[in-house]
Every structure is written in structure tokens, then in C-alpha cells.
Write a structure and sequence with these properties.
about 350 residues; mainly alpha; Arc Repressor Mutant, subunit A; 4 domains; 17 helices; about 60% helix; flat
Length: about 350
């Protein structure tokens, strides 16, 4: 029987029992570490970058962890829902790690648009004179500042003005594209300065610089949200909406021709095998199914049935069965058999 060294009880902090009773198997390692760090430092306002450095995970995984606890209503701030924008504390992603890791993470699964490195938005709070001068120089900038307030439904301050100027002057997004970006953020109820800056950088890296390309991005993202909504109903997931990483996964699966029921089938496989939510594991399952030619849950059931029948037939004939060769990580590889004593 294992016991904690009594000498360590000199310095302790409280951990809600729900963490071990409910989330120990469901939450990712990054999510567990994020919550423990926040519990250890009550009242401290962490940024994603600070959390990332402290727990040793990339910023993308750290942000996903925060969004997971927020969606579960475990993280709150001043009695209200805690969001990813809250933990970002108004700071845009400033390392490029998020985009790079996502690109590398998906490289073996699906082709992703090539991203060009871009300077980060530095919210330097320009003076009123500097803002006024830029608005006097360009009618487009004047219109950008004026109509953005109408879209956002609030008066914008220097931080947002600085961000909008960087999107226009440095990232090269047109006024019309920026308006579409803002409308999309409002629709998602994520119109903080930090999120606008982050999404604007994503659009610029993907070279979404025309109204047509912006509309295509919004359409696909909306499609991913609808698929995720159906997936929630089929699986009972409590997360209200997909993270950006999950959205990328869903879009890649839809591009392969998979509908929500098939994705839900992969979810069930993932839950049964790992006991926690892992879109990366689901991705491996679906890629194997795509390679095997499975398009519907019925195809999967038939494939599993044939696999069991062939395995039973081999057993009855006195042959050996190589699991490593017969089944992939998702359980749907090409079946191979080997006679005993035959090399």
C-alpha cells in the first residue's frame, strides 16, 4: 500500500474531489496540470504563455486545456464563466508555436494550407495623436475604425484600434475582410481584442485576403460547428463548441467524406480504448477506416464481423495469428495470417 510521505503535509492546497471522482480519466494530462497549477496559486491571473511555460506544454494544448475546464464550468472568474479570452489577459499569441505545432501535428493526417511567418500584433497603445493622424491619412482606416464599433456593438479603445491597424497595415487584410472577421467573432461570442488579433493572424497566414476566401473559411467553420453539435447529441459530450484544433480535425474528416454518425462511431472507439477525449486518437481511427474504405458505421460493423470470423477460422485450422500485422491502432488494418512454423 502506498502512502504520501507525512513530511510533505507541511505545505498543502485544496483539490476539489470532483477532479479525481469525475475527471481523472476524462481530462487530458495538460488539463490536469493546468487545473492543479491554478489551484496551487489561487487569485493569480495567469496568461496562456505563463501556464504553458509552467506545465511544459505548447500554447495550443494549454489553451485547449483552459477551454476544456471552462466548458465544464470548472474554471470561473468572479462568479462568471471563465473563457480562453480571460486567461489570455488581452495578449495575442506571440510565439508562433501554436500555428507551427498545429501544422506539424496535422502534417501526417491531411494537407494544410502553407503558412507564412508573420510579425505578431504588438498592442502598444498608440497615442491619440497617432491614431488621429492615421485616420486623417486614409479614408479606409477612418471607415475601419467607425464601422468596427457598429459591428462590435461597443466603443473600441486603443488596444482594439491598434489591433485593427496592424491587421490592415501590417497583415494586409482589406477593410471588407476585417469586417467579416469581426462579424464572425461576434457570431461566436468571442470578440475580445486578443481573439480578434489571434484569428486575424490565422487569416493572414492562410492568406485569407479576399471576401470570397473569408466567406469560404466562415462557411467551413460553421459547418464544423454544426457537425460538432450533432456529435455532442450522439455522444453526450458537454463541451459547447469545438476548439480551433478540434475544428481543424472535423474539417479534415469532412473532407474525407465522413458524416457525424461515422465520427461519433470513432468517438465511441476512442472512449472505449482510452477512457478520455482525444481527437488525435479519433483522427488515427478515421484515417485507418478511410484507408480500409469504410464510409458508414455499418461498414465498420461488417469489417469487424469479417475480422472476427477470419480470426476464428484461423484458430480452428491451427494457425497462428499475428495481432500486430492484422490490426492497426484503430483496429481496422489489413488482416494477415501466418502458418505455424512457416517463415
Amino acid at each position: 500500500m502506498f502512502n504520501v510521505n507525512p513530511a510533505l503535509y507541511g505545505s498543502v492546497f485544496a483539490v476539489p474531489s470532483v477532479l479525481t471522482d469525475k475527471y481523472l480519466k476524462l481530462a487530458s494530462p495538460a488539463a490536469i496540470k493546468v487545473l492543479l497549477l491554478i489551484l496551487r496559486n489561487p487569485g493569480e491571473d495567469f496568461t496562456v504563455e505563463e501556464l504553458s511555460k509552467r506545465i511544459g506544454y505548447c500554447k495550443a494544448d494549454t489553451l485547449d486545456a483552459v477551454e476544456y475546464w471552462a466548458s465544464e464550468n470548472v474554471l470561473v472568474k468572479n462568479g462568471t464563466a471563465f473563457t480562453s479570452e480571460t486567461v489570455e489577459s488581452g495578449k495575442p499569441d506571440d510565439s508562433g508555436v501554436n500555428a507551427q505545432n498545429k501544422s506539424e501535428h496535422r502534417a501526417s493526417c491531411v494537407a494544410v494550407p502553407e503558412k507564412r511567418p508573420l510579425p505578431e500584433i504588438k498592442i502598444a497603445k498608440p497615442t491619440l495623436e497617432q491614431i488621429s493622424k492615421r485616420m486623417e491619412e486614409s479614408g479606409d482606416v477612418l471607415r475601419l475604425m467607425s464601422e468596427s464599433q457598429s459591428i462590435l456593438g461597443r466603443t473600441i479603445g486603443f488596444d482594439m484600434q491598434s489591433t485593427l491597424l496592424m491587421l490592415y497595415d501590417t497583415y494586409g487584410l482589406s477593410v471588407e475582410v476585417i469586417f467579416m472577421l469581426l462579424e464572425f467573432c461576434v457570431h461566436q461570442s468571442r470578440s475580445s481584442t486578443a481573439y480578434v488579433a489571434k484569428l486575424g493572424k490565422v487569416w493572414a497566414e492562410k492568406e485569407i485576403n479576399t471576401v470570397e476566401l473569408a466567406a469560404d473559411y466562415i462557411e467551413k467553420s460553421t459547418e464544423a460547428e454544426k457537425t460538432f453539435s450533432v456529435l455532442r447529441e450522439l455522444t453526450g459530450m458537454s463541451t459547447p463548441r469545438p476548439t480551433q484544433k478540434q475544428t481543424e480535425y472535423i474539417l479534415s474528416w469532412r473532407a474525407l467524406g465522413f458524416e457525424a454518425p461515422m465520427i461519433a462511431r470513432a468517438y465511441d472507439e476512442m472512449a472505449e480504448r482510452t477512457g478520455k477525449i482525444s481527437f488525435n486518437y479519433m483522427d488515427k481511427i478515421l484515417l485507418n477506416w478511410h484507408t480500409a474504405g469504410y464510409k458508414t458505421p455499418e461498414d465498420v460493423e461488417n469489417g469487424e464481423r469479417l475480422f472476427r470470423e477470419k480470426k476464428q477460422a484461423v484458430k480452428q485450422k491451427g494457425t497462428s495469428f499475428s495481432i500486430d500485422e492484422a490490426i492497426s491502432d484503430a483496429g481496422m488494418g489489413v488482416v494477415k495470417y501466418k502458418k505455424k512454423g512457416v517463415k
